[in-house]
Amino acid sequence: MTDAALSPAPAKASPFNELEVLWVRHWTDSLFSFGVKRPDDFRFRSGEFVMIGLPGEDGGKPILRAYSIASPCWAEELEFFSIKVADGPLTSRLQKIVAGDTVLMGKKPTGTLVLDALTGGERLFLIGTGTGLAPWLSVARDPETYSRFGHVYVIHTVRNVADLAYRDFFTREIHDDPLIGDEARAQLTYYPTVTREEFQTPGRITDRIKSGDFFRDLGLPEGFDPAKDRVMLCGSMAMIKEAGELLETYGLKEGSNAEPADYVLERAFVG
Q1: Cα separation, 156 vs 208, whole angstroms
Q2: Which of 9, 18, 79, 98 is the most buried if burial means most Cβ atoms within 10 Å?
Q3: d(CA 191, CA 214)
């Protein structure tokens, strides 16, 4: 028997990064955000998602779910925005993490909510419901977004006013960003809507688009213009389906990484 035959087989590389939790912020009883240390070799495009999870209990397999990266591609830490589900296989445990804990993260980011999947335009509409805001936190902090589009609209629809996580960020704090603060002040508009409480812009975003209120509120001509407007969609399956159909009626075509076009959605979260 040779020495080679006696040598142990090389350890199989883990498909996950084990990352330290740097901070956790609980917005409400159902929403929280957290940041983790970014691996030195981890690269992604603003708007992409990655698998996030925790080791399985009692030696079981790790439990992972797709999460949009809420940090821009240049950030030194990675931020995530999550719901809390009391009996959820992952979030029932993930919501209890604290600084110093370890979470798992896949090594291959991917996704279609990226500028590469859109053709050129003048206005960019980032439409999200609930935690579907996460990729817009990334895209809206990327300098390329402001060099490619003259104006950027971040649209966030939630059930209750308290669910408007990052409202202060988009209305004030982003203006102080050392990299894109001046551009955001001049080119970014934040447009929240609330469906279950009184609010200055009430209702579902798709209803406000259909009624024309959305365009009137923003001082825009009614309707989306395929020659000028580009749209990204993320959030509930119902919103994405309805909004996608609406955009098609205005003549916008769905794009992808392989074939950039007028609007994109993230199918990883849709079924």
Answers
A1: 12
A2: 79
A3: 9
